[in-house]
Amino acid sequence: MRTIVWPCLAAMAAACSAATAQSALQSIDALDALVQNALAQNGGTMSAQPIDRRLRLQRCAGPVAVSGPELGAMVLRCPLSAWRIRVPLVAPASAPQRESGPAPAPAAPHAVPHASLIPNLIPNLIPNLIRRGDQVQIVLMGRNFMVRSIGIADQDGGVGQRIRVRNERRTEILTGMVQNDGSVIISGIN
Questions:
Q1: Residue 12's pLDDT is what?
Q2: Are 168 and 137 in contact (CB under 8 A)?
Q3: Is the pLDDT assigned to residue 150 strictly greater than 60?
Q4: Residues 180, 174: contact at Cβ < 8 Å?
Q5: Taking a C-beta distance cutoff of 8 angstroms, is the pair 53, 28 a contact?
Q6: 3-state SS track over the chain
Q7: Average pLDDT for residues 116-135, to the nearest whole number?
Q8: What is the pLDDT of residue 68?
Q9: Which percentage of the chain shows pLDDT scores above 70?
Q10: Cβ contacts of residue 19 below 8 Å, gap of 6+?
Q11: Which of 72, 70, 27, 26 is nearest to 49 (CA)?
């Protein structure tokens, strides 16, 4: 009888442990629903890719913050558990295609008024607009040109602060100034 009882108890303990571990994880279905509700409130013109079911996040003890769309993604944050994920957005299949013709003129970069006056001496007073690991728009500006690209922030930074960024395709590190629209401008390139 002993040989039967111990394996049964071990199996029950393992099942109980697995159930407890599952309840300590955030529901991916609930996160998907949050993203869809936020997109519906924003007009519903975009849809989000499903969140990877293999993702294991600690259950958020408070409300999950949803922001976006920004740079083609919705951002989900749990301030209490310190996790953050980006959910890529996709354009609807029925979106009208732009007719061929001249390309629209690029939008002028948004300049921060008095960006040079924002003190780097008091970094704690400037809230972080960009966090390390965020996808950011990099704007390279020279005397006669402007190039836009997508990159990854290597450090946190607020409006007017200089941060390190890296292009997605290269490992070269660039330093630029955070703008109020969340882009990073790198100037002085000839």
A1: 54
A2: no
A3: yes
A4: no
A5: yes
A6: CHHHHHHHHHHHHHHHHHHHHHHCECCHHHHHHHHHHHHHHCCCCCEECCCCCCCCCECCCCCCEEEEEECCEEEEEECCCCEEEEEEEECCCCCCCCCCCCCCCCCCCCCCCCHHHCCCCCHHHCCCCECCCCEEEEEEECCCCEEEEEEEECCCECCCCEEEEEECCCCCEEEEEECCCCCEEEECCC
A7: 65
A8: 79
A9: 68
A10: none
A11: 72
Residues 40-57 as b or e (16 or more Cβ within 10 Å = b): eeeeeebebeebeeeeeb
Q: How far apart are CA 76 and CA 86, in angstroms?
A: 6
- pLDDT surpasses 50 at 50: yes
The token pair that represents 42 in the structure block: 């924003």
> What's the rounded Cα separation, in Å, for the pair 118 and 120?
7
Residue 185 has pLDDT above 70, yes or no: yes
Residue showing tokens 């008024």: 113
pLDDT band of residue 10 (cuts 50, 70, 90) is: low
Backbone angles phi, psi at 124, to 5 degrees: -75, -20
The answer to whether the beta carbons of residues 165 and 176 sit under 8 Å apart is yes
CA distance 183 to 29: 31
